[in-house]
Amino acid sequence: MTFDFDLYVVGAGSGGVRAARFAAGFGARVAVAENRYLGGTCVNVGCVPKKLLVYGSHFHEDFARAEGFGWTIGETRFDWATLIGNKNAEIERLNGIYRNLLVNNGVTIHNGHARIVDPHTIEVDGQRHTARHVLIATGTWPRLPDVPGVEHAISSNEAFFLKTLPARVIVVGGGYIATEFAGIFNGLGSRTTQLYRRELFLRGFDQDVREHLRDQMTQAGVALRFHSDIARIDKRADGGLTATLNDGGTIDTDCVLYATGRRAMLDGLGLENTGVALTDDGFIAVDRDYQTAEPSILAIGDVIGDQHGRMQLTPVATAEGMAVARRLFQPGEHAPVDYRDIPTAVFSQPSIGTVGMTEQQARDAGQAITVFTTRFKPMNLSMTKVPGQVLMKLIVDAHSDRVLGCHMVGPDAGEIIQGLAVAMKAGATKRMFDETIGIHPTAAEEFVTMRTPQP
Questions:
Q1: 10-residue stretch averages of pLDDT, the chain, 455 residues long
Q2: How far apart, in whole angstroms, are the C-alpha atoms of residue 290 and residue 292?
Q3: How many CB atoms lie within 10 A of CB 279?
Q4: Are residues 155 and 174 in the same domain?
Q5: d(Cα 93, Cα 91) in Å, to the nearest integer?
Q6: Is 100 left (phi over 0), alpha (psi -120 to 50) or beta?
Q7: Strand pairing class (262-264; 140-142)
Q8: In terms of domains, do 72 and 19 share one?
Q9: Domain count, the chain
Q10: What stretch of H or E contains 376?
Q11: Residue 186 belongs to what H/E stretch?
Q12: Out of 120, 152, 227, 440, which one is annotated catalytic?
């Protein structure tokens, strides 16, 4: 059978674009369908605009530090519309870059909603196209709870396009997105409350990291309320909102932002016309080569959830996209994605950087470990009245001396941990850390000067 394309990618997020670009570079005929925006969640309503807002929200602390270094700062004023307008312009620029990446590699772009008609046929706006392979990379979408008045709340998608900065905000959730937005709104001057139904946010992170961030955020003015959730939301006559909590208490606010999970984006995709199966939690089931139960259809990225030990992160999706392109069209170069020791950052305030095992994971695995921890006031706060402490932690195998985990809470944590992730991937031992000469004076040098283990 002759096909219009060798590969048809549904979804132009980071994973889909990477697969399309590389497949086309390997000589395949490739098309991509996208009905929203090039670059997917990360570029448009995720990590990129969120990081820009994080940068914007840090300036209040910069102004507070300046006095200790001899600067006199006059009256400052923040304009939300300027920040959002500039953010929008930057995202539009990135959209154009993604389009050029595809077009310059010979990829055909179909702007519209793709529906799979049969295992080899995709329909976009009434036009049908056939492909030998179909790759689903449609990502996820925010999931809001079924509580009375939830129509008055927003998700992270809408948070990037608010017309005005709310004076009071409730952020509901305990993951990356909730914790980052709590820091953003607090830094920009909103009175911010973060609610989480469990005992402590960022489940799965090292316990010391979670507790340290809790203390630092509380010190910065975020009202953290654990074991707490919203039972209903009511809109008042003055336009504000009242959130009634599960304990009967109430909070008056101007905005409720839910960041309580995301679902696989499969709406109208036509999977019922194929043999593709789903996992129990509604993600596309795949094997370790991203193959679905339908021989012609593959899936990568957040739409496959956390199967096979993967993490729902943009760089993971791009690695999967490259792996699929190589397996299908350059098999001699194919290598599976290694999900071990994936570094990650939470752009909370202060930020978190982490790679490898937590202390609890190591103990649960039966590892004999030595733990090194340090806490200190960073040098850029030493002459100021601004409070704040950095946390650094190493988990070390007591027998082999290999470093199993690196964790940090503090300024530029992600930038620092990225380099340590390379060392860990190479099998670095604690002795190698100890023998590495530090860069002085930096916060990062503490990772190579920790000598005294925890008792």
A1: 95 97 97 95 97 96 93 94 98 96 97 98 97 98 97 98 98 98 98 98 98 98 98 96 97 98 97 98 97 98 96 97 97 89 98 98 97 96 93 98 98 97 97 98 97 90
A2: 6
A3: 14
A4: yes
A5: 5
A6: alpha
A7: antiparallel
A8: yes
A9: 3
A10: strand 369-376
A11: helix 176-188
A12: 440
Is 155 found in the same domain as 20? no
Residue range of the domain that includes 364: 350-448
Collapsing DSSP to helix, strand or coil, 257 comes out as strand
Point out which residues pair with 395 in neighbouring strands: 371, 405
Query: Residue 290's domain is classified under what CATH number?
Result: 3.50.50.60
In a domain, 42, yes or no: yes
Instruction: Report the candidate in 143, 62, 47 with the shortest Cα–Cα distance to residue 345.
Output: 47
440 is catalytic: yes
Query: In the structure encoding, which two tokens stand for residue 55, read together?
Result: 């940068």
Whole-model pTM: value is 0.96
Q: Where are the alpha helices (DSSP H) in 7-75?
A: 14-25, 40-45, 47-57, 59-66
Question: What does DSSP say about strands 230-235 and 241-245: parallel, antiparallel, or unpaired?
Answer: antiparallel
Q: What gap in Å lies between CA 295 and CA 119, rounded to an integer? A: 8
Q: What are phi and psi of 20, to 5 degrees?
A: -65, -45
